Amino acid sequence: xDLLKKCPNCGKHFSVEKKGKELVSTEHHMEHVDLDLSSRTxxxxxxxxxxxxxxxxxxxxxAVETETFETSYECEHCRxxxxxxxxxxxxxxxDSKEFRA
Length: 101
Ligand SMILES: [Zn+2]
Hints:
Layout: E1 16-34, H1 38-41, E2 59-75, E3 81-91
Antiparallel strand pairs: 1-2, 2-3
Bound molecules: zinc ion.
């Protein structure tokens, strides 16, 4: 029973049963994340032997997975059935390149 849910048909609380959660779709895409290097490189800038990283290393590609779920509910009071969509976002599922200063 899902106590936070309210039946959209009869409006009753405390009578909604969660029947199941189903994964309907997954999407992958790459996202650019800027790395904040200001704190890491501070104090190291005077070391002339240290090479400055090329600009393309200041951001990294992070794989983002978007999972769409469909949860089905049923009202125990009036037997009304409905589904609700929810989206889960999982970030950084792929091996992220580690930045070495
Ligand atoms: Zn109901």
